[in-house]
Amino acid sequence: MTYELVHKFRGQGKMNEAEDWIRANVKGLWELQFLGMSEEIDEFKKTKTYIFHVRFTFGRSEDMKRFKDEYIDGKPPRRAQASAPAKKRGFFSRLFN
User: Fold this and answer.
1) What's residue 20's pLDDT?
2) What does the pLDDT average to over 47-62?
3) How far apart are CA 27 and CA 47, in angstroms?
4) Are the CB atoms for 56 and 23 separated by under 8 Å?
5) Region (Disordered) spans which residues (predicted)?
6) Helix/strand/coil (H, E, C) string of the chain?
7) Which residues pair with 47 in a beta bridge?
């Protein structure tokens, strides 16, 4: 698998949500690799946050791009261009065609 993406998550719950999204939406092979954890201290709130560093590897570039666009960047899913619905042809249009 050659398409990689490294991302940081604030908390394990967000990392689990990403894994669930991948299972539901990705068609090809994929792998999640936990790289490590770090602490970030918010000086304003005086709180400590754990940051999870994760590498996602995908077998298809379309899957990686879709994950990045839809899940990480929060863009709405791209919809395939639907062709115009076929017109029902009446009796006379078939007769004179």
Assistant:
1) 92
2) 90
3) 39
4) no
5) 73-97
6) CCEEEEEEEECHHHHHHHHHHHHHHCCCCEEEEEEEEEEEEECCCCEEEEEEEEEEEECCHHHHHHHHHHHHCCCCCCCCCCCCCCCCCCHHHHHCC
7) 42
